[in-house]
Every structure is written in structure tokens, then in C-alpha cells.
Amino acid sequence: MADPAEGELDEKPPPSRAQRIIYVILHVLLHVVFISYFTAATIIFILYDKDSDDCWPNRGSGATTESTDNSTEDYDIDDYEDVEEETTEKPLPEVKPKLLCTINWCHGYGFLIVMFILFYILWLYYWAFKPFVGIKLYNNYLEPVIDKWIEFSRQWIVSGVMLAIVIAVVVAYLGFECRNDAFKAIGLLGPVCFVIIGFAVSKHHLQVPWRIVTHGLLGQLLLGILCLRIPFGRSVFQCLGDKVTIFLNYAQHGARFVYGDRICDEYVFAFAILAVVFFFSVITSIMYYLGWMQFILNGFGFLLQAMVGTTVCESVNAAGNVFLSMTESPLVIRPYIEILTVSELHAICTSGYATVAGTVLGAYVSFGAPASFLIAASVMAAPGSLAFAKLFYPETEESLTRSDNIRLERSTDTSILDAAASGAAAALLIVLGIVSNIIAFLAIVFFLDAVTEWTFELIGLHKITLLYILSQIFIPIVFVMGVPWHDCQDIGLVVAQKSFINEFVAYRNLGILVSDKKVEPRSAAIATFALCGFANPGSLGIVIASLSAMAPSRRSDITRVAFRSYFAGSFVSFTSASLAGILIQNEHMDGN
């Protein structure tokens, strides 16, 4: 792929008349095929729904009836007329077609409906509304209003008043959530303490963009409310997570053919897990060749930059990390990593540490972690990672990846096969770097742990390891997250295991604590959020290796920010845990 820093690409020559005619014909055929397929699927769904007569909703207690039986078994679809003739005091219950009662909007025909609607909304917007109405509307009306609002809102008095209002509303809402359990209010200390610590260790204290920090933390809270308090939001993200996991699991077919079933079934990391990197690298390379990835970067980048204030690449990477891993998500912005500022590289690393991949959620669930909590934690981490990234390492350079100046480059590959081959070749260096760095970093960590234990044994203190020392440090940290004091020792230990070893070990031990009923359900729920991130020594090596393979000239900058972003990513998970401890209701914990 071409280097986006080399300059703007030459515009394509205008298509000839014959090319335009062919393009229109293909465009029409696409719509004919898609609409025909949707129509056929609809007909087949209706005809082959064997229970499609009717479905009966439960009647409310306020229904007028002479019978005390509220069940629907007294009615039959063939007896409606007889029932109506017999009495006028017993109204018929509302009848809905079975078709509308049994649609699964995440799978099968229901998902096809969603795709059909979204496709034509986007098509109408980009082919009808935007060129004929949208551009003029934006240039003549919206852009001047937005510019005036930005100028007005960035006055320090206005910004201060708005910030005070936002803080007051947030505190009032969280206080309302704590009305039935005063101890939950301790969780309010968590975000406050983490922000104060982040500011204390910030690289540039005077350049901290408090607007981005505030927007990111507010987005983290709003997404938490959406995922934990609104069933629809939880279902949407659950569906998205399932789709991403299903898609990435197709990499296992290639891995099983090359390595064999035994290695893949035993989840040998270097073979079974990292196969996803090859697959996703090929997919992103093909999408760049087709121009789809540039479209995603432009759309998502503009939206997230407008909402949070961060640049295109760091925003898109944070959004991708919701379901992708720290090695897969940067592949989306691979051509631009060379020109990122140091602060943007720090944000890329922080997003990777703060989230987990959809491909490993199943492993965490097998240890007893509720899937709904894991998805909520990963979603909440996206805006939170941007907030803490800019708090720990504020921007002091001129970014080249803002929505108004990013150069959306075209792929230099000559065909789809060429793009796939180049993507696979690029993934090889990434995988080799990941494996070598994990081996080295984990070896160093366990060596330091052994040295610590040996040092204390010489003075008569046994079983004092580096992990034990860290667990004691984490006791006050988990307490301000909202964990009851009597559970802080156990929860502090699993958080230390996650930070010192990895989250797999931590989730396994948390599952044991829950099954043995050694910790309260709320403590376990808070720990589930605190552990949901890749911030561990092995991931430190993964980040350095993967990003360095994508941008070799930036290795020194990547290694410089990798360790700082490790702590920033950890604080994102801890903040999500604090907010979740307030938002989670008792019925959620009972249901999970």
C-alpha cells in the first residue's frame, strides 16, 4: 500500500460513456437481485412458518370478561365469530401474526430485514440525499451553526458552566442509582481517584484536553447505562459481538487444516489464537483494495471525532477494539500508523489494553463470567480509553489524521488476490513478533517474581512474591471501585493476577471464588469488569511487536508509550468496574 504521507493521490480520470452505462446496468442489477432475494426470503419465511396462524399476547387484568380464566386456550382462531356472537362483554384479545412474534432480529430472516433496511437507508443517503440536499444543507446552514457553537462553547466561562452542569447531572443520576444501597456510593470515588492519578502522572499537565476527557468519561457512563439498564442496548451489542465472533472463527478452518485439530482444540496460542491475525489482515487488505475501508474510516472517524474530539485513526481504532483484539484493530488503520503522532500511538495502545477481543469472550464465559457483563465492559471501554489516553498523554503535535485533513489513500495492489497475498505476508511478521515478545516478557516477569520470593525468604518471610505484593496494593484500589472491604483481599488478588499474569488466570480464579461463594455477587460483578482488558505483561509485548511490524520506523515511539498506556488501559477497566458497580441491579446478578 502506498504511504499516505507521500501526498495527495491523483484523482481518477472521469469514466467514459461506456463505463458509465455498464456501471448503471450493474447498479440496477444489484438492486434487482437484492430486492428479489429479499422478496423470495419473505415468501418462503411466511409459507414455511408452520405455526403462522396467530399468536396471542397475554391479556391484561383490566380486560373486560365474564370468565376468570385469563389463559388463551379458551380461544381458537376458527371460533372468533362464535365468541363475538355469544357475548359482547368479552372482547377479543389482540391478534398478531405469528410472523411478527417469532422473528429473531439477530439471525436468519430477521437479520436480513435489518440488513435490507440499513442498506437502503445508507444508499438513499449517499446516492440521493447527500449529493442533492445534504451537501448544500451542510455548507449553507449546518456548518455555520456548528462553527458558531464551537466558538461559543469554547469560551472558558461557557465551558465551565457546561462542565458544572454535566457533572451535576451525572452525580445526581448516580446518586439516584445509590438510593437503595448507600454503600454503592463508594464506587463514585473510583473514577474521581483514577482521574486525579492520571492527571498527576500526565505527560503534559497543562495541555490536558479536558473536553475530550469529559466527553469520553460521559460516553463511558452512557454506554454503561445503555448496556446494563436498557435491554435493547444489551441485545444489540450482544448481537454485534456474536456476529464478529462468528466471522473471526472462520480462521479456525485454515488453522485446523495447517496445524491439525489437536493443536486447535487445545488452544495453543501461537497456532490456534494467532490464526485470526492472518485472516483479519487479509480481509482488511482486500477492503482497502475495494475502497470499503476508506469509506469506514471517513464515516466513523467523522462521527467519533465530532462526539469525542479525537482524531480519525484513534477513534476508529477504539471503536474496532470493542470486538477486535489489539493486533486486529490496528490493521484497520495500518497504512496510517507511520504518520501518527506520539499521543495518537499512545491512544492506540491504550485502546488495546482496555478492551478484549470477541474471540476470547467464550473462554471467559466458560470460567463463569456473564457474557452480558463482558460485552458491556468492552463497549464501555471504547470512549473511556480515549479519555484516559489523552489524560495520560495529551496531544502536543499537529495530527495528520483529522477528518478534515486525513489522506484516504488507495491501495497499490493490482487485484483482490494481490491484496489478499500482501495482507497474509504482512501478518506473518506481526505473528512472529507477537510470539517472540510474549515468550520474552513472560519469562522476565516470572523471573522477577522468583527473585522477589527468594529475597524475602532470606530474611525469614515465606511466600512473599511479587504477585502477593501487588495484591496488597490493589486492595484500596478495588475498595474505591465499590467492593466491600471483606472481599477486597480476594478481589485484589484476582486483579493482581490479571495485571501480572493474564486475564485467563484471573477469570478462572474468580470463577472458583464465585462457585465457592467466597465473595458477594456484586463484588464478583465489579471484578468481572475490572478484569475485562488485555493490560498484562504479555500484551505489553504484543503491542510493541504488532505495531512495530506495521510501522518499523516508529518502534522507538511505540516502546516509549507502551508502558504508560498499560496503566492508562488498566484505569479504563477500573473506571468501568466502578460505574458498573453502581448501575448493576440485584436482578442482573441473579440472572447471570
From TrEMBL:
GO terms for molecular function: nucleoside:sodium symporter activity. Residues 272-370 form the Nucleoside transporter/FeoB GTPase Gate domain. Residues 374-581 form the Concentrative nucleoside transporter C-terminal domain. It is found in: Cell membrane. Pfam families: Gate (PF07670), Nucleos_tra2_C (PF07662), Nucleos_tra2_N (PF01773). It is a multi-pass membrane protein. GO terms for cellular component: plasma membrane. Residues 189-261 form the Concentrative nucleoside transporter N-terminal domain. Keywords: Cell membrane, Membrane, Transmembrane, Transmembrane helix. The keyword Transmembrane helix applies. The chain crosses the membrane at residues 21-48, 108-128, 156-176, 182-201, 213-232, 267-290, 302-325, 424-452, 464-485, 524-549, 561-584. Belongs to the concentrative nucleoside transporter (CNT) (TC 2.A.41) family. This is Sodium/nucleoside cotransporter. It comes from Drosophila simulans. The lineage of its organism: Eukaryota, Metazoa, Ecdysozoa, Arthropoda, Hexapoda. The gene is Dsim\GD10626.
